[in-house]
Amino acid sequence: MSIFLNENSKVIVQGLTGSEGTKHATKMLAAGTNIVGGVNARKAGTAVSIGGKELTVFGTVEEAMKETGADVSVIFVPPKFAKDAVIEAIDAAIPLAVVITEGIPVHDSAYFWAHAVAKGNKTRIIGPNCPGIISPGKSNAGIIPADIAGPGKIGLVSKSGTLTYQMMFELKEFGFSTAIGIGGDPIIGTTHIDALEAFEADPDTAAIVMIGEIGGDAEERAAAYIKENVTKPVVGYVAGFTAPEGKTMGHAGAIVSGSAGTAAAKKEALEAAGVKVGKTPSETAALMKEIMASL
Q: What's domain 11-126's superfamily in CATH?
């Protein structure tokens, strides 16, 4: 099994005809993703050939869902138009919207997140500013390279795109049920806790890797959740152990205030919940290798 995305997922791409949409749709198709169409109001009714597949471009997400049965949208829409694109997906009640776009204003993210809640949380949002989600060998919705690792029993949830890729590479001998990059913005849809809950419930996920970073309190909240609800082994890594104090980090969510939000505080909280935490990505991977070898 996998979480949120599987071999039966029917994917549309909002922004399919743009350069990023076309490039990554080609890669998703090569990975076996069932892309069934695209959305671009200005090119509605046309068709594009991508990766050897003829794809219809629809005017709206609602129309695309009605015609194709799509249940996942991957959003490659420039930041200033992204809010409207996500709202359109939510209004159509698509079950999963993967928002790849970087640089969406925080108030726009807050608006569409609140809109999803107001609509009854029928649409799970992953992102924004994320690499997406991959269930290796089944489907890939986003920009995670599909050839890093194959299917297996590790679940991975990460704030960082590049650390998602590194962890998948380091643990490729074991493989993954699903790897999900949740994004590093201050306001995101799917959280560490959401992914942990899904991995705990997934019979084919045996162990979980959780990657966080300095700033905010998401990792502390995840530690409290793990302590109360997760029975599977979890290993963790917190990016930013060597970050100098007062330095602005790359991710918008990596804001440290006082001792809260530091890598050391997060490591302490996770270890108190029984999570083994590596000081480097490679050390974290080594901890998971030990666990997988003992299962």
A: NAD(P)-binding Rossmann-like Domain (3.40.50.720)
User: What is the second-level CATH architecture of the domain 148-294?
Assistant: 3-Layer(aba) Sandwich (3.40)
pTM over 0.85: yes
Cα-based angle 165, 151, 177 (whole degrees, multiple of 5): 80
Per domain, the residue ranges of the chain are: 11-126, 148-294
- At 119-128, the pLDDT tens digits run 999 999 999 9
Which sequence positions are flagged as catalytic?
Answer: 251
